Amino acid sequence: MEVVNTGKAFTIRLSPRSSAELAYHTEMDLIFLDSTYVPKKFRGKGVGSRLVEAAISHAKENGLRVVPVCPFAAEYFKKHPEHNGMLAQ
């Protein structure tokens, strides 16, 4: 699954007419994970997690701390405490 960063969202093309996205914005040294959307037929297959992982990688590469605003991203951090060091205090 290739993740593309548009500057406003991380996206994955799932089919010619379908894609998943994690919308975000940055302020100073923070990246806010605003909302995650995965089409119903692709849910439960790791697509959303792949988007959050791409956001975490982007944050690491750019010295950013993560603020998981969207419930999916917040739940990801609860399930993967190994990434909690990336969270903003």
Could you provide a short overview of the structure?
This protein has 89 residues and is an alpha+beta fold. The chain is built from 2 helices and 5 strands. The protein has a single domain, classed as Gcn5-related N-acetyltransferase (GNAT) (Aminopeptidase, 3-Layer(aba) Sandwich).
Describe this structure in words.
The protein is α+β, with helices and mostly antiparallel strands and 89 residues long. The protein has one domain: Aminopeptidase (3-Layer(aba) Sandwich), CATH 3.40.630.30. Helix content is 27%, strand content 35%. It has two helices and five strands. It has a five-stranded mixed sheet. A hairpin with a 3-residue loop joins strand 1 and strand 2. The longest helix is centred in the middle third of the chain and has 15 residues. The mean pLDDT is 97.
How many strands in all?
5
Low-confidence stretches: none
The CATH class turns out to be Alpha Beta
Largest sheet: 5 strands, mixed
Layout of helices and strands, plus pairs?
Layout lengths: L3 E2 L3 E7 L2 E10 L2 E8 L9 H15 L3 E4 L2 H9 L10
Parallel strand pairs: 4-5
Antiparallel strand pairs: 1-2, 2-3, 3-4
